[in-house]
Amino acid sequence: MEFSFDSFADGRFDYDPKTQTHTCLWLREEHMDVGGGKISVADIDKLKDYPETDVVKISGLHQDTFEYFIRTYGNQLKAISFFKNKLVEDWSLLGTLPNLEYLHFFANQRITSLWDMSANRSLTGLCIEDFSRLSSIEGIETAPALREFYIGNAIWHTMTLDSLLPLANSKIEKFMFSGRKIADNDFSFLEDMPDLKQFDFPTNMLSTEQVAWIAANFPQLEGYALKAKIDIDLSDSPYDNIPKVLLVGKRKPLLEINGNEKRIEKHVRSFEKLKEKYKSVPYKIAFPEK
Questions:
Q1: Is the pTM of this model over 0.85?
Q2: What is the DSSP string of 215-235?
Q3: % of the chain at pLDDT higher than 70
């Protein structure tokens, strides 16, 4: 598996299903439970035997062992996956690692804010999943080299973020939100992200009008939900094998194509008219109530 931020963040690089082995070093309690266990200093110090290793997955950290791990080995690493370290409550020491390139976090119940990333000069990829108390991304603007930022949920899509406005004027090229909603419902930040190339979000999070506004004003953007409809691959529906279409937009349905052709066509025509309506219209004027 080629090493990239995407393969690192989604676990494909970490685990090879053919050989059933891990391709990066996983530090953890020997018989850790489903909650991540509790790693010891001795478990962490296994890294001493791998001085050339620069990609690590680690589980079961508490605050004291997190600080030991970062202070002792942080500068050796270019990519760290923090998998089920639920009780770490202060991750500010991450800001002392100028050589770190990729960070992935899964599952935490204590963290409430981001850290100062101004010294993370090499950090280009950041993925944060299933943080039950994190609702703000303020501080993301301090990351000088960040290009890929994914945040939300890997299991149940429940995360609500206060706002995405801190993304404005950043150099981020790929942004993905996989949570439930953005509280302020303000997507005007897109007007100040000239480097953004890909924007992904749940198909039912934005209204059809909002999606049309984005598609009309940022045609260069790629995104799974940046269109009127999504044709469902039959390989994703192995039980009934019936062709379906998902209409994009809040509260829009999944429809069988057969028998709904006119409804689908009407939705597509309406989407194109909305694009014409919102072309070159600033977000705050198009959606003053948002």
A1: yes
A2: HHH-TT-B-TTSSSEEEEPGG
A3: 95
